[in-house]
Amino acid sequence: MSVTVRAPAKINVQLSVGPVRDDGYHELVTVFQAVSLHDVITARAGDGVSLTMEGEGSESLPIDDTNLAVRAATLLAQYAEVEPNVALHIEKSIPIAGGMAGGSADAAGTLVACDALWQTGLTRDELADLGAQLGSDVPFALFGGNAIGRGRGEQIMPVLGRGQFHWVFAFADEGLSTPAVYRQCDALRGDAPVPEPYVSDLLLQALRAGDPELLADVLHNDLQPAAISLRPSLRTLLEAGVEYGALAGLVSGSGPTCAFLVRDDEHALDVAVALTATGNCRTVKRGTGPAPGARVV
Ligand code: C5P
Fold first, then answer.
1. Could you confirm whether domain 2-159 is CATH 3.30.230.10?
2. Which alpha helices (DSSP H) does 81-123 contain, by range?
């Protein structure tokens, strides 16, 4: 028997980063949108937990128990009191260290796949509690859709939305380290007081209305200046996307992937072709959001 799960990438259409907490994490409020770019996780009966991977760049990732997917399987087995026997295989399409929560998607997908393989019958909320122990973005990858994330980002509340938004994603040659980008954000802020993070009403209205022009005006990422200061070429890329007609562009999460909002699929194709021609990014892909959370296919 084998179980196959698709787990989505995310972008943060809003990321409001607050002060550093005592545990070293930043208190934040974010609005996540899951998008139609997926990793595929397959779980088969195995002897212990093993992992193989394919897809661009996957050879650079560890396959031992430092891998988030391996940790997810082990954690679920402990919690559900079953033997941790599974052979995992992951087909990666989400860029590595790209700010789209690919590692979190793999962990979320592994939780769903092992829950089905081992017939442990956990609820989504139980899986999300386990996911939160693995990483801040794992619970959202389980729920998908549009959602507000609070705390470290792991406390998820679904958000109503209408229709689909169209995006163009520009992937960079090299990833950025999330902790490094948060540190740079702190460094740029210096000693200035950091306001409490908040969610923008206008942004929630834009999602409810399904209106890309409204959404374009209110996309915001507090980590963007930090990502740009570590990777100055992102500024040129963002400007180029808008010059080529995108409604808006922003750095996804901690970057370096940039997400460009467009009106529809035809518009996406125009912007994607133009961005590809700049040679300023590794790959350009089109996608839509919101997409469902990790689920068996
Ligand atoms: O939770 P996760 O392991 O994905 O976080 C990776 C790193 O990102 C953390 O070690 C921390 O440096 C940074 N982070 C943060 N505040 C958050 C989420 C992540 O500082 N809310």
1. yes
2. 102-117
- Between the CA of 227 and the centroid of ligand 1 the distance, in Å, is 15
Q: Which two tokens stand for residue 206?
A: 């834009």
Q: Is the pTM of this model over 0.90?
A: yes
Quickly name the fold that domain 165-289 has: Alpha-Beta Plaits (3.30.70)
pLDDT of residue 20: 95
Closest CA to 255 of 271, 231, 278, 273: 231
Write down the pLDDT at residue 57. Answer: 86
Give whole-number Cα distances, 80 to 86, 98, 121, 123, 174, in Å. Answer: 14, 32, 9, 12, 38
List Cβ neighbours of 162 (8 Å cut-off, separation of 6 or more).
207, 208, 209, 210
The pair phi, psi for residue 119, each rounded to 5°, is: 50, 50
Which of 26, 155, 183 for a ligand 1 pocket mutation test, highest count of atoms within 8 Å of Cβ?
26
* pLDDT tens digit sequence for 34-74: 999 999 999 999 999 999 999 988 999 999 999 999 999 99
